[in-house]
């Protein structure tokens, strides 16, 4: 029996962090490595740096090309994998700033694309606060959150580029399958 690979479908994946050692980006990269039948592209927020959003800046300088480029990546994808880092219980400044700029172009920022929403953290709550905020907020921006995944105690559960906790790895694979089903 032949397996038909669907490379026509494309998932973009990124971490809501600008840290070069982001544990959320590591989780995103690992998650993409588990996807075989769909094309994936891992983005880095550092490639989409933007000035701090403010209405005066927008009126004086317009919308940065980086915001347009990132929004275009979202709009032309078939699905999204987003792993949010948590700073003081909320989004990182880097992610929130990009999100604010993009929403000035298109309020429905996520274009009803199926989304796997994740968070990783060094602590036991696994980014629960930022996930709760995103689960409540993102649907107003047309996110179709298919599944969520939380990775607590990152250093204990992730090693050498992979999840080492079998139960969490199985949960992640189920979340990926749910996302793929919606593409």
Automatic annotation (TrEMBL):
Superkingdom to which the source organism belongs: Bacteria
Residue ranges of domain NADPH-dependent FMN reductase-like in the record: 10-148
Pfam families: FMN_red
Family matches, as SUPFAM superfamilies: Flavoproteins (SSF52218)
Single annotated GO MF: oxidoreductase activity
Any Gene Ontology CC annotation: cytosol
UniProt protein name: NAD(P)H-dependent FMN reductase
Originating species: Bizionia paragorgiae
